[in-house]
Amino acid sequence: MGRPGLDRRQLLAGLSGLTVAGSLGFAALGTGADALASGADTRVRYWNLFSGGDGYNMIAMLDAFRKAHPDIEVKDSTLQWGSPFYTKLAMAAAGSRAPDLGVMHLGRVTGFSPGRLLDPWDVGLLAKYGVREADFSPGLWKRAVIGGELYALPLDIHVQLCFYRKDVLKRAGLLGDDGRMVPVTSVDTWFDVLKEAKAATRKGLQTIGMWSSDQNFQWWFFVAFYTQLGGTWFDDARTEVTFDTDKATRVLEFLRRHVTDGYADPAFAGGAGAEQFVNGGPFVWEGNWSVPVFDGAGIEYGATPLPPVFGKQATHAESHSFVLPHQAGRGGAADEGAHRLAAYIVRHAALWAAGGHIPAHTPTLATAAYRKLEPQNEYVSAMDHQATEPKVWFAGSTGILAQRVGPVVVSATVGSARPDAAARGMKRTLTELLASKNPMDGRTAAQGGAVA
């Protein structure tokens, strides 16, 4: 399965990536190979999955590293986003052909057989290059630790957001004195907001784009609102499913109501919601990677975490993280170069932040430059209320859990299944997955529970 719809970052991505990189004064975008240092003492092979605006920004960051460290040659390769990337990375690690440094979504690390396909980070070496546990939120760092060792170094938090058009909301009387959307604290309040916004919206435009038919986005939204209700997935031993079908039904009914009440139209599939937003639609639920897209469109907008309609703040979050794919002889200059490169990018995340992601490196969040970024300074609070998938081998971005349960959420949202029946179906699927074995190491979630 490839990248979800739109292509998520392709709408104006090239223009926005160039704009962001140039505005922050980073090196002109190169090809990677053209920027390899000459006469370098150390070579670091680095695989990533960043394309579109993210790809432009990563290349600029790598070029800045090369300029600052001419003794280290970085050979970077960008592979296809999604499952193809993880398959190739696993094969390379299993076959002694792994790169020195890689990127993974943090939620996929647990299932990647840490200790066999991934090597742990040397936290002392990271500290030598300026990166320490104290520089990260405790919850984020904890997610990266498996079996007492650090297997992922978080680069960012990327979250699902509620983007809103300020011009439309102003006409609807939905902007506060601070120029931001009025607070939403309940389901009823949210649908009142949608009603007022719809009345102020031009005919032919839907009120909210919410990827009604996309299994990834619908799953991410479900995770957020289910977490707001305090929903759980499994017990600590990973032997019992604790999924609450009543709470799940409430979430599925909430998602479905956007369609039945006429605010979201499933006919606008894929990235059409973002296009409608650019053309004047008042709302779209999208990932923070869309910030450069909407900046490039030249519209006046804001962005908040998904509305806390069930009382508790929680918005779906994932994290791009650096990993060390397993090498039989890991160590030496290339390994130290990988630590140095990852630490540098984590510490110099200003460009990454301008591209929409929330830097994982908390000192960056405290800088004056970051506090001035809009709308980033409006949704940075999402760092403190992340809704993440359970820490099991089959979870993580575009993982088996999303592939199996995401379509069930879609069926409820678009009306092909009743919410209560869909919730029961989700629980059955979770029960099946909990008993299944990770193809990476042949263990169930319970058998890997000690390290998870």
Describe the fold and architecture:
There is one protein chain. With 452 residues, the protein is α+β, with helices and mostly antiparallel strands. It is 41% helix and 14% strand. It has helices spanning 13-23, 52-68, 83-94, 106-109, 123-128, 138-143, 166-171, 187-199, 215-228, 245-260, 272-278, 291-297, 332-347, 350-354, 362-365, 368-371, 376-379, 400-414, 419-435; strands at 42-48, 72-78, 102-105, 118-119, 145-146, 149-150, 153-154, 156-165, 208-209, 283-287, 301-305, 315-318, 320-325, 358-359, 386-387. Strands 8, 9, 10, 11, 12, 14 and 15 form a seven-stranded mixed sheet that branches. Strand 1, helix 2 and strand 2 form a beta-alpha-beta unit. Helix 1 packs across helix 12 and helix 10 (245-260) crosses helix 19. Mean pLDDT is 90; it is low at 1-37.
Pick out its properties.
15 strands, four-stranded antiparallel beta sheet, alpha+beta, globular, seven-stranded mixed beta sheet, 452 residues
Produce a short descriptive summary:
The chain is an alpha+beta fold and 452 residues long.
Secondary-structure topology with pairs:
Layout: H1 13-23, E1 42-48, H2 52-68, E2 72-78, H3 83-94, E3 102-105, H4 106-109, E4 118-119, H5 123-128, H6 138-143, E5 145-146, E6 149-150, E7 153-154, E8 156-165, H7 166-171, H8 187-199, E9 208-209, H9 215-228, H10 245-260, H11 272-278, E10 283-287, H12 291-297, E11 301-305, E12 315-318, E13 320-325, H13 332-347, H14 350-354, E14 358-359, H15 362-365, H16 368-371, H17 376-379, E15 386-387, H18 400-414, H19 419-435
Parallel strand pairs: 1-2, 9-10, 12-15
Antiparallel strand pairs: 3-13, 4-13, 5-6, 7-13, 8-10, 8-11, 8-12, 8-14
Helix pairs in contact: 1-2, 1-12, 9-18, 10-18, 10-19, 18-19
